[in-house]
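To whoever is covering the structure queue this week,

Two jobs came back overnight. Logging them here so there's a record in the thread.

Job A:
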Amino acid sequence: MSIMVNLPKRGRGAVTAQLSTRFALPAREEDGDWLDMAETLDGPAPKLRTTVTEEAARSILSRNNSPDIPFDRSINAYRGCEHGCIYCYARPTHAYLDLSPGLDFESKLFAKPEAAKLLRKTLARKGYTPAPIAMGTNTDPYQPIESQYRLTRQILELCLETGHPVTITTKSDRILQDTDLLAALAARKLTAVAISVTSLDPALSRKLEPRAASPAKRLAAVRQLSAAGVPVWVNVSPIIPAITEEWIERILEAAAEHGAQGASWIMLRLPHEVAPLFREWLEVHFPDRAEKVMHLVQSMRGGKDNSSDFFTRMKPQGVWADLVRARFNKARARVGLNNQGPELDCSQFVAPDRHGQLALF
């Protein structure tokens, strides 16, 4: 049952926990009068807690043939993400589980404890051909529960053991816990890291990404990883019209000052249930400019909240998009950041034994 919430919950990004109706699930709301009576009789509702369900996954390496993204395989050891970023394009995946892409996505999490073992079996298959594995493409591999499960670290250990290239995208300084592995991988040209920074305003960050690291901590992670020899890029992602776009130049300047090698950007995308969730968020936090923000979003997406067409979904169109693109490219060139990631070495890969040892031949 979904619960209509008029005010944001402390430390959460989404405003509501409405179930998706995309798969013909009934949309239901609790009666306000009943809620008043329940609170009178039983007291306030319990605080929303994060829960983690362990998932017995059958496979861990996901493949794609999209022309819009630069990798063909990825790993997501977790479902859902406690960072609670309101703009997260992965939120709709919780609808497949009959859970809310809103509050459920950031509080009802799933972990795959066998992730590294499953990857070992995949890498050991006859005929497997290595190419960089992308981590952090759906949910953050360094969200808070990584401190408990250490699934990302286990995967990095396996990549180092087998000489397999891997990339990481995160908005958490928790990545510094694995500096030893990342430095060892980087020394062999087997890894690159991208850290997402949306603004330099901690108050805005708490609204957008309530349980992610502050912008200052993310930049500090850029500096420390770079000092350890790890190639680091900064993703100014997503850029939100009239909310975060004012920070573009300052983020790029800070990225260069902290040792980043390059930078990229992605415009806000609002697929499926993300669009209504984002609209709710705007009405709560920025009611004065909600209409303007959505007008600009639609101006770049053919008059719609989102465009899912190949070749255009990652390339916003229109005057405002062209202006942002020009600003970003000019600022990036001015501070000396690259616009392409490093080439990782796939030639070092040695297939492991399925049971934990490297093959000799």
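Job B:
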Amino acid sequence: MTTHPQDLSPSIDPVKLDRLAEVAIRVGLQLQAGQDLLVTAPVAALPLVRRIAFHAYSAGAGLVTPFFSDEELTLARYRFAADPGFDRAAGWLYEGMAKAFSANTARLAIVGDDPMLLSNEDPVKVARASKANSVAYQPALEKIAGFDINWNIVAYPGLSWARQVFPDDAQDVAVRKLSDAIFAASRVDGDDPVGAWAAHNAALHRRSAWLNAQRFHALHFTGPETDLTIGLADGHEWHGGASTAKNGITCNANIPTEEVFTTPHAARVEGYVASTKPLSHQGTLIDNIRVRFEAGRIVEAKASRGEEVLNRVLDTDEGARRLGEVALVPHSSPISKSGILFFNTLFDENASCHIALGQCYAKCFVDGAKLTPEEIAARGGNKSFIHIDWMIGSDEVDIDGVHADGRRVPVFRKGEWARPEEV
């Protein structure tokens, strides 16, 4: 393969970057011969996109089509665009993506932009643009949330992101630290990353199988500022690691991943909970989130930082105040052990148990691929324009599984699996 060393920072190991591209294609997507691939990425991630194209075409891809974003172009909009434009989004583009997904095109997203890029821009404009984009994105999002196709998200260690994560280090040191952390979390720092992912997927499948065998009615979280009962959707199903999409292809949607997750019942969440890590959302750091649920809906929300943005998110639509996901991650996960706050949910959610506001995943139901949106809603699945994960786990949080007859089974104790020999 032709390389372009002038575009790749000397702080990034080219061998491990190539392994990440290979894992994205062979594990993340399991791209099939003849299948097209749609890639979205920041311009800074071009070296990774090139390697992904190489591995995709080597696997027999039909056509690889990349779409790039650029931080300077994004900032230009907020600083110079006319006000009415912030209520618009490129719906034509997302309709085209939805059409591609309907034709079995695979989806790969590369993250790597500055997570605080919009921190100094008008938060009202940021919120308006986000809502417009969320509405326009619905045709494509429905294909992804419905798991119609094989899709995957990976990360590239962009300089602006590295500066946020390691602000006290020189640029080259910050990029090296972030790239090493990404490669380790993505399990590409060894000689056999594909084999490492096979073993990891097997472990996550064992945990999912144990939870599915239990058929819990609810989960009860207790800890500092937390006493929360999350009812689970009727006919819910736990997933973790690789899953099979409706097109019959088994893929790992997130790289990295440490979670097992399922769908809560949108109307059966009660109590209060506090975040255990900050949430980075559209350039705002939202910290010390505290919310209270009644009949599944958040009726009170506070934060020590970013509270105004949090409440705007909750007002996106009716489903934004309800849960679409609950996920279990042990406190001893590799990402938690790293001690790094990535300011990126792809990584930070894998350091802690978490919940997600908004849209549920259709695949988290028994025979979910066969259910209509109306049937999913009847079983308690939530619908929303958003899906935002935030962390509620720590080494001080316990979780009990609650059966329909009231019997309780320890699931987590002090942030770890209570029955490690079974999961």
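Note for Job B: The chain has a mean pLDDT of 94.

Please reply-all if you pick these up so we don't duplicate work.
Q.
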